[in-house]
Design goal:
Blueprint: E1 4-10, H1 11-16, H2 18-28, E2 30-36, E3 39-44
Parallel strand pairs: 1-2
Antiparallel strand pairs: 2-3
Length: 78
């Protein structure tokens, strides 16, 4: 899904219309940035399709953990 330029909403406007805004984001694919006092607080964007590779977890089970025991001093004799 290609990213489109997003809308900007004041926090009060988002609060009053949150469900409608979330549905619009889902249906249009357009992100929305919510601001407070003119400063960005959060960006709401649609979830990516599962078919899109995310990179998260792509290296799972490709590494082997090797351990090495190192002793600084020889063990004590009883």
């Amino acid at each position: 899904m290609a990213k489109r330029a997003g809308r900007v909403l004041k926090a009060a406007e988002f609060k009053a219309n949150a469900l409608a805004v979330m549905r619009r984001v889902r249906d249009s694919g357009e992100s929305v940035t919510v601001t407070s006092h003119g400063r960005p607080m959060v960006r709401i964007e649609p979830l990516r399709d599962d078919a899109e590779p995310s990179g998260f977890g792509c290296m799972r089970d490709t590494c082997e953990l090797l351990t090495l025991e190192v002793t600084a001093f020889p063990p004590r004799k009883p």
